Amino acid sequence: MSIFRNVVLNLQTEEECERAINLYKEQLSSLTNSGILDAYICRLSKESILFFATIDTEDNAKKIFEGLIKWREEQKFDLIDSLVFDGPIEWHKNFGNNKI
Q1: pLDDT by residue (tens digit) across 42-66?
Q2: What's phi and psi for 93, nearest 5 deg?
Q3: Backbone phi, psi, residue 3, to 5°
Q4: What contacts 83, CB < 8 A, 6 or more positions away?
Q5: Minimal CA–CA distance to 41: which of 33, 31, 53?
Q6: Torsion angle in degrees (nearest 10) through CA of 75, 81, 85, 86
Q7: Nearest to 4 by CA among 82, 43, 57
Q8: Is the dihedral of CA 31, 76, 65, 86 positive or negative?
């Protein structure tokens, strides 16, 4: 069963938001072949980011989440707050694969 993780980071400044986006792009890219199926980085506002990822198994998700938590603490982002949701994916349809 695939797992999702949804993280919203609210940062102090637009510059800190840019720094977080760039560091997350690099970090997530380094996790190739770790079980991540898809990863998205979405700008919610000048100071807020949404990260959304799907992972192939619960075991891989646990490893990835633990590593990212430690990595995020090391980055010392200037956070106002964060919100994290994760769990099993109950249903999925990729509408981009429909051919006319």
Answers
A1: 999 999 999 999 999 999 999 999 9
A2: -140, 125
A3: -120, 150
A4: 7, 8
A5: 53
A6: 10
A7: 57
A8: negative
